[in-house]
Amino acid sequence: MAKLTGMVLVTGGNRGLGLEVCRQLGRLGLKVLLAARDIAAGAEATAVLHSEGLDVTFEPLDVTSLESIDNLVDRLGRQGTRLAALVNNAGIALEGFDATVAERTLAVNFFGVMNVTERLLPLLERPGRIVMVSSGSGELEGLSPAIRQRLDPPPPKEELVALLRSFVDDVRSGDYARKGWPGSAYRVSKLGLNALTRLLAEELRERHLLVNAVCPGWVRTRMGGSRAPRSIEEGADTLVWAATLPPEGPTGGFFRDRRAIPW
Ligand SMILES: NC(=O)c1ccc[n+]([C@@H]2O[C@H](COP(=O)([O-])OP(=O)(O)OC[C@H]3O[C@@H](n4cnc5c(N)ncnc54)[C@H](OP(=O)(O)O)[C@@H]3O)[C@@H](O)[C@H]2O)c1
User: Fold this and answer.
1) What was the pLDDT predicted at 96?
2) Whose CA is nearest to atom 43 of ligand 1?
C-alpha cells in the first residue's frame, strides 16, 4: 500500500478528538491544517503540535459562517493547496431541547459539514477522502418508521435539507413527537449527517473521493465527559484510519473501530 502524502484539513482541531486527529495525522508525516473558530485556542493548539515537531498550520474556520468558509477556500486556493483528506470533526451537543437548540445544533453538525464539504470539494485531490465524524446516535435503529422511511434510503439532497428544516419547525410548534422525530437535536443532526454521507459517497464515487461516516465511540472529551470509557487516542483512531484510506478503500460506509456498522 502506497503511503499517503499531502495535506489534510481537520475542523474543530483546537481540542478534543480534532486536536488528537491532527496529532496522529502529523505523526504519520502528513501536513495538517488545523482549523478552529477560536483564534487564540487554534493558535495555541497549533503551537503545542509544533513543539512536538509536527507540520501543522492554523486556519481560522467557523463552520456555521459561509463568509468564514469562503475566506478559507480563497486563502487555500490562492496558495494552490490540494487536500488529500478533509475531516469534518467540529460538532456540538447542547443542553436542553427547544427550537433554538435544534437550529444551532443542525447549523454546526449538519449544515456546517455540508457547506464546508461542498465548498472545499474543488481543492480535494483525486483520490481523496472525506471523513464525517458522526455518532452512534445517528444510527437508524430505534427510529420511528415515519422518519426512518424518509431517511433510509436517503432522499435527494434538497429533500433532506427540507426534512431537517421541518424538524426545527416541528420542535417549535411542539409537533415533533407526533411526527415521529426523536427528542434529541443531536441525534437528528447525526441522522442527517449519515444520510448526507451516503448521498455524497454516491455522487463523488466517479471522482475517486471516498466519503465515510465514523463513530469514535464514547470518548473522554469536553463533549463526552469524564465518565466516558474511551481515551481520546482510542477515539481518534478510526477517524485517522478513514482519513488515510488507500484509493481502493471503502466509500459510503459507517465505521466504528475500523469495522463497518449498520446505518
Ligand atoms: N466525545 C464523544 O464521546 C463523541 C461521541 C460520538 C461522536 N462525537 C463527535 O466527535 C466530534 C468531536 O467531538 P469532541 O468529543 O472532540 O467534542 P469537543 O471536545 O466538544 O470539541 C468540539 C470541537 O468542535 C468545535 N466547534 C464547535 N462549533 C464549531 C463551529 N461553529 N466552527 C468550528 N468549530 C466548532 C469546538 O470548537 P470550540 O473550542 O471553539 O468550541 C471544538 O474544537 C463531534 O462531531 C462529536 O459529535 C464525540
Assistant:
1) 97
2) 12
